[in-house]
Specification:
Elements: E1 2-8, H1 14-28, E2 31-35, E3 38-42, H2 45-58, E4 65-72
Antiparallel strand pairs: 1-3, 1-4, 2-3
Helix pairs in contact: 1-2
Length: 96
Amino acid sequence: MLVLITYDVNTEDAQGKKRLRQMAKQCVNYGQRVQNSVFECLLDAAQCKQLQHTLQTIMDPKKDSLRFYYLGNRYQTKVEHFGAKPSYEPEGVLLI
């Protein structure tokens, strides 16, 4: 299923900046960054739960927020892209 993950990390202190880097690093392991702090990830249920757990252990729930949007397996009809940063095919080959 395609999952859109967004987060907002308070970076007013050094710990916040560290959390922000850690959140991004974990999300990059599972998907593609489509905007700052926004990732599209193709996950199965187990991967999704694992990533949720990992991100929740990184974040500070009193200062940060984390959202998962479940677009499902028929996501092609639910996502439209306009403007800069060309879209990509989530199930295609990712060159790094």
